[in-house]
Amino acid sequence: MDEVQIKIQMEAVVIAFSLGLLLLMTLGLLDLVITLNKNDWSYRYLVPFFVAFYFFGLFISKRKYNFDDEKHD
Prior knowledge:
About 75% of the residues lie in helices and about 0% in strands. It has helices at about 5-35, 45-65. It has a domain at about 35-65.
């Protein structure tokens, strides 16, 4: 991997971590106000959100650097 690809991956992870943390904090605060059903909001149901956040971050980072998988000379 070259430097641009490493930077894209790191930015995607940072975006995914930030959005995942925001989701968990929001659900925690929401659980204080109203009781959430534990069967609907278990951690196993939140893992696909983290994967989707990673791919969202990857999409944003690739657009930012105008990077595609083709090699340019």
